[in-house]
Design goal:
It is built from 13 helices and three strands; from the N terminus they run βαααβααααβαααααα. It is an all-alpha fold and about 325 residues long. A three-stranded mixed β-sheet has the order 2-1-3.
């Protein structure tokens, strides 16, 4: 290893992203599904935004939250994929120190925001099913806007310490990151000072956000299921539960991949490095790709508007 990578420096000018260690020869082939997922995520989420903006009948709390989710997914995947593809295609591995910390902040901030939006969507389903007559009175446009702002502020404030703690640390081991992106723990491991504060705070954010958000979503669906089971007919129960299917599928796609990635990175010391990197990319790419597909297929109103749009253009 060169001296430039081992000398003591408080703030390195650049980091080197290796991509997927051990699979460098396959980078070009791996880029194909990555690029496909990114393209689907971009087209799908912009389509959701376009349809909701165009159709005034969709101007309601559920679809406003869906638009917030689409914007969050667009920011999340765009904050990582361009750099990842430049590594795969052009071997452009250098990333400026400040740019690395900015990417770190965006990744974790918008992941927390997305989790919060799922809680808000769970609240919307709870009010719509358990208090249908008061739905429009409870979730007014100002209330929806305040909930969205609260989710953004929560994500911004909880993640803010990460880049500041990373900037204040000296780095003396190496400036090489065995990853495709500036993930928090991957950067922390390069520091030569005590990193326990960052590690403990990172765990606090993970368990606080995931724990509280999953708890609130579980409470919402507990009440929703109680309301569904007292409906008089099986058809009514299935129809009502069907309005939650898209939300449940999106929740599973997000939380299962997030929890699995976090646990394997922190506690899977015997897991191959390339597997860690692939899982980290999957949890950041798959939900933004799947969310518009899930809501486009499972939500009748969006599916009908989409079919009408293409049919009208074809006519």
């Amino acid at each position: 290893m060169s001296d430039s990578n081992t000398t003591h420096f408080t703030n390195p000018s650049t980091f080197i992203l290796l991509g997927i260690p051990g699979l460098e020869a396959a980078h070009v082939w791996i880029s194909i599904p990555f690029c496909a997922m990114y393209a689907i995520a971009i087209m799908g989420n912009f389509t959701i935004l376009f349809i909701v903006k165009r159709e005034t009948s969709l101007h309601g709390p559920m679809y406003y939250f869906l638009c917030m989710l689409a914007v969050t997914d667009l920011v999340l995947c765009t904050s990582i994929l361009p750099k990842t593809l430049s590594i795969f295609w052009f071997n452009s591995r250098e990333i400026d120190f400040s740019a690395c910390l900015t990417q770190l902040y965006f990744i974790h901030c918008f992941s927390v925001i997305e989790s919060g939006i799922f809680v808000a969507m769970g609240l919307d389903r709870y009010v719509a099913i358990c208090h249908p007559l008061r739905h429009s009175a409870i979730l007014t446009n100002p209330v929806v806007a305040k909930i969205g702002l609260a989710m953004v502020l929560r994500g911004g404030m909880l993640v803010m310490p990460h880049p500041f703690l990373a900037r204040w640390r000296p780095y003396c081991r190496t400036n090489i990151i065995s990853h495709t992106l500036c993930e928090h723990m991957a950067v922390v491991k390069l520091a030569c000072s005590d990193t326990r504060i960052s590690s403990y705070y990172g765990l606090f954010v993970v368990f606080c956000v995931l724990g509280l958000d999953v708890f609130f979503i579980t409470m919402s669906y507990t009440q929703i299921l109680r309301a569904i089971f007292i409906l008089p007919t099986k058809d009514a129960r299935l129809k009502t539960f069907g309005t939650c299917a898209s939300h449940l599928c999106a929740i599973l796609a997000f939380y299962v991949s997030t929890i699995f990635s976090s646990l394997t990175y922190r506690f899977g010391q015997n897991v191959a490095q390339h597997f860690h990197v692939l899982i980290a990319n999957v949890y950041l790419l798959v939900p933004p790709m799947l969310n518009p597909i899930i809501y486009g297929v499972r939500t009748k109103q969006i599916r009908d508007r989409l079919l009408h749009l293409f049919t009208h253009k074809g006519t």
